[in-house]
TrEMBL record:
<dbReference type="InterPro" id="IPR001509">
    <property type="entry name" value="Epimerase_deHydtase"/>
</dbReference>
<dbReference type="Pfam" id="PF01370">
    <property type="entry name" value="Epimerase"/>
</dbReference>
<dbReference type="InterPro" id="IPR036291">
    <property type="entry name" value="NAD(P)-bd_dom_sf"/>
</dbReference>
<feature type="region of interest" description="Disordered">
    <location>
        <begin position="118"/>
        <end position="139"/>
    </location>
</feature>
<feature type="domain" description="NAD-dependent epimerase/dehydratase">
    <location>
        <begin position="3"/>
        <end position="213"/>
    </location>
</feature>
<protein>
    <submittedName>
        <fullName>SDR family oxidoreductase</fullName>
    </submittedName>
</protein>
<dbReference type="InterPro" id="IPR051783">
    <property type="entry name" value="NAD(P)-dependent_oxidoreduct"/>
</dbReference>
């Protein structure tokens, strides 16, 4: 299958490209810089130059492919409106291009705010609708294209997709701990984060492309919920730092933009996803990665 991948040189995207190529698929990756293009080409994939603002290029990439996997996001946490608008624009462009073709359209999403007080499941619909909502309401927008001759699938990634050289949320929390001289956790540290190793997440994406029915919500979750206190303790061990509670009123000042996320309970299950796809995660846990020095590697 000829697959067009946005975010192909990113943390998750790089692993997905590797897994797709290993499975015999042909991949074209969207790349916005020379370095990104070189990284995609080095894997044996083709390159389409462009970014999320190049909607004509995204449409052309989608039109030339048998399937689209949309993983790119601006992740501008200082200006969420910009990220949300770009995400919605890209999803709209891809969906409209694929209308009437029956082709798969997989897009990255998340589990934040799906539920309160219990782990999220694949049955929980996203509450986000419209351009002003988180991620521009992109999951619901994409799933609406199921009624327009598209085969959409939502890829709900854990808040931490971990592994060596991860530069995501755990790397940010580790950097803050080193800067502050203490590895903190919000309040009593009982709120939880779901987790998945990057290789397991990539395998899920390929299986989702090959097997998931239209309209599916897939959970890239290996660990249902790791308490934030355990995460902080592992970061403390990794960098030989003391561990301490951060009072709820001080969380935003201590962590900055990531404080709101770290204080959330982001637990989720993947029972349905495993049964549907035969997905059998085998990678290390988040704490095992931290204890093995995955976040000490530059």
């Amino acid at each position: 299958m000829r697959v067009f991948v946005t975010g192909a040189s990113g943390w998750i995207g790089s692993a997905v490209v590797d897994d797709l190529l290993a499975g015999g698929h042909e991949v074209t990756g969207l790349a916005r810089s020379d370095a990104s293009a070189a990284a995609v080409e080095a894997k044996g994939a083709r390159v389409r130059r462009g970014d999320l603002d190049d909607l004509d290029g995204i449409r052309a990439g989608a039109a030339d492919a048998d399937a689209v996997i949309h993983l790119a996001n601006k992740h501008d946490f200082a200006n969420q409106a910009v990220s949300n608008a770009a995400e919605r624009g890209a999803v709209q462009a891809i969906g409209e291009t694929l209308e009437g073709t029956g082709r798969p359209f997989l897009l990255a999403s998340g589990i934040a705010a799906l539920t309160q007080g219990r782990p999220a499941t694949e049955d929980d619909a996203s509450p986000f609708h419209g351009p002003d909502s988180p991620r521009g309401g992109s999951e619901n927008l994409a799933l609406e294209f199921a009624g327009k001759g598209v085969h959409p699938v939502s890829l709900r990634f854990s808040p931490t997709v971990h592994g060596t050289r991860d530069h995501g949320f755990i790397a940010v929390l580790s950097a803050i701990a080193r800067e502050k001289g203490v590895s903190g956790y919000p309040g009593d540290g009982t709120n939880r984060w779901a987790a998945v190793h990057v290789a397991d997440a990539a395998r899920l994406v390929t299986l989702g492309l090959e097997k998931a029915p239209a309209g599916s919500r897939l959970h890239a979750v290996t660990e249902e919920g790791v308490p934030t206190r355990e995460i902080a303790e592992a970061i403390g061990r990794a960098f030989d730092l003391p561990v301490a509670s951060i009072a709820p009123d001080d969380v935003q000042d201590h962590y900055g933009w990531i404080g709101g996320f770290f204080a959330m309970d982001l637990a989720a299950t993947s029972v349905q996803t495993r049964e549907l796809l035969g997905w059998a995660p085998a990678g290390p846990t988040l704490i095992e990665d931290l204890d093995a020095g995955a976040y000490s590697v530059q």
